[in-house]
Design a protein that fits this description.
82 residues, mainly beta, 3-stranded antiparallel beta sheet, 0% helix, globular
């Protein structure tokens, strides 16, 4: 079991996240619901690959506010408490 945090930065999305298979071969959360991948306020996909889980995450960033960030929390329970 992984316990810890991963921090990474990505400057610009070169290619939109592929939402093919959402709800079938991978999980997806989009806001607003069913938005186009390049127009979502927030988009998260996850897919189990053998013993790992691949996450893809994106958000809309406005050039006027360089302090924006995006995050996702994972928990073993619904209270987000260890």
């Amino acid at each position: 079991m992984f316990k810890g945090a991963i921090l990474f930065q990505s400057p610009v999305v070169v290619e939109p996240i592929d939402v093919t298979g959402c709800g079938e071969t991978k999980g997806c959360y989009r806001n607003p619901e069913d938005c186009d991948p390049l127009e979502c306020d927030f988009l998260l996909t996850w897919m189990v690959q053998e013993t790992t889980v691949l996450f893809e995450m994106s958000t809309t960033v406005f050039e006027s506010d360089q302090s924006q960030w995006v995050a996702v929390g994972l928990s073993e329970n619904q209270q987000m408490v260890y």
